[in-house]
Structure formats: structure tokens, C-alpha cells
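Re: the 385-residue chain
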Amino acid sequence: MVDLKGLTARIRPELDEAISRVVDSGIFIGGEEVYEFSNELADELNDGNLDDEMFVVPCANGTDALQIALMALGVGAGDEVITPTFTFISTVEVIALLGAKPVLVDVNPDTFNIDCAAVEAAITDLTKAIIPVHLFGQCADMGRLIEISDKHNIHLVEDTAQSLMSIYCDENGVSGKAGTFGVCGTTSFFPSKNLGCMGDGGAIFTRSGDLAKLLRSIATHGSLNKYSHEEIGVNSRLDAMQAAILRVKLKQLKQYNRARLEAANRYDELLKDVEWVDIPFRDPRSSHVFNQYTIKLNSKSCSTNNEIQKLLKADGIPTGIYYPTPIHLQPAYICYGYAKGDFPVSEKLSQMVLSLPMHTELCEEQQEHIIKRLIAAIEKCNQWT
């Protein structure tokens, strides 16, 4: 699904130099590498905007980034947080861990992103925050979500783990990069991400200096000065080695995203005449950085994506189903009172979506082979039924 060995080979000298620099410094937690990476990422997110500063607060992983953001906003017992049911578990997990109630809503069947009408319908007097997830590589409808959050005075926290550097621009002039619209944005540097480290890592973005200060404090045991603890915090730090690696990769990120887009374009061309497949919808208001290339299987005679995945696996073709079970049907979240049928779009998508290999090293020959085997698998599955 992701060729990390191939990517690493191309930048191995730079990575070796960065790792050696950290080893020689003897500073493995915090220090210059983390500081410089934070500033460099902030500059990339802000596009050189000198009038509105961007702050980046690194942490240990993307899940912690979401939890720390909600903690800084005071989310806790008795609060409600609205987020999609069609997402990775961590988006919802952190809400529950803080004692708040996850209020789940359905998604758009084309973009897979949060349904804005469902968001507004779900708002109550207890709603403290909305977490849109910029899924698979393109932005949610931030113009509408900003309107909703402003109208109801609700915090907007963006989960941009899969869409770092995706650009949103609508007809009303709302524009910027994923994670820079709300009170804060969060991301993950898991190795398979477009910007991934060689372990775990995450970060929180905000334009508020006061909020950035609070986020840093919470991420370090609620302390900005050693042994002085102003609030309850956690231990969540990006180590210097990962920061140094990320600094190398950040310089290549635009190139990586271009390579993914080129691969996505080739997939689109190869699949354009395949009647059983819907290629990824591209929202004209958002660029797409293709963390995943996710198709929808629309053959009426092919019952589930799981059957196609098994046939492709037998052919040596890796695929992913993101996500096979929506959050509201997960055993751990039954306690919130949701049931099958509550979110029909997400439930249908869970049986239709299939993510094909997507990474910077894909070549045309590989993609032709993948699509050839995909078509054969669908035809075989159709014959069975």
C-alpha cells in the first residue's frame, strides 16, 4: 500500500545526516530540531502570511494532538462534540476519554466528508465543539462549517491527519490550508502519511498565541516551567530524532504530493471506462493530496468490497477498506445509543469503498497491473452471483 523503503532510499543521505546530527548533539527530547521543525511547518501552513502568525505545537502522535486540543478548549463531562461516524477511531475515542459525549453524524456520499446539514441539525445547548475530518486527502466544506460554528459559537477543531497541505477555496473567498480555519487543527506524522516520520508523531496548529502556550503546557504535564504545574496535562512530546527526519521530508512534501496526484491521475485514466467503479470525487473547492486513493464499487451483483479485497489479496495486490465498520456500530460505542440504520450513507460506504495502493513510488506499469487484476476480480465476483 505504501512503499516507505523506496521513498527512504531516495533521501537516505539527508536522513543519515539528520540522524547523525541528533546523535552528535546528545539532545533527544526537545531542543533545536523540534523548535526548527515547528517553525518550518508553521511557515508552510501559513504561506508566508506575515499578518497572521501560525503556531505549531508538536506532540507524540495524532491521537494525542486531538485530545490535547480538546483539553485546551475545556471539553469534558457533560459536553457534546459532533464528528462523523465514517472516520478512524481516534477522532471519536478522544471525546469519550475526556468524558464528553460523541455526537455522530453522517457524511457526504461523494467526498466522504462530514455532512454539514447533519452537523447543524445535531447541535444542542451542550455542543462544545465540532471535529470535521478532512478524509483521504481533501478538505471538508470549511466555508459552511465556519458559518455554523460562528453562528452557534462552537469551537471548530480540524482533524487533518490525512490531508496536510490540502487547499480549500470557495466562491465566498474562504481559503487556506487544511487545519488553519478552526480554532485549531491537528495532524499525524504516522509513517504512511504524506508527511510521515519513522515512528510516531503529531502536531496541533493554531493562530492564537495564548492557545499555543496552553497547548504546549498541557503536552508537557501541564507545565511550562519545570516542577510548576498550572493545569492538568499529559506527557506527549515529539522527540528530536523524529523532528529531524520530518525536517528532511518537509522539504520534499510538495514533490511527494505532486507524485501522489500524478498517480491518482493515472488511476483515473485507467478506470474511466470501468462501469463497476466510481473514481474518487474531487471537490472543486479543495485540492486533493491523496493520502488514499479510494474508489467505490458500484456493481449491483458484487455484494461487498470484502469479496473483491480477498480476490486481490490472492493475486498479491494489497488494498485497504477505510472503514469496514462505522463508529456507531463498533462494540465500544454501542453505549451511546446508536443503531444500524442511523447513518445509511456511512453504512453503505463501508461496503463499497476500496483503497488502492497509493504512494510516491508508484509507476504506470504497477498501476496498470493493479487495475487489470481489479477488473478481473470484479468480473470473477460478478460471475459467482
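DSSP finds 13 helices and twelve strands in the chain.
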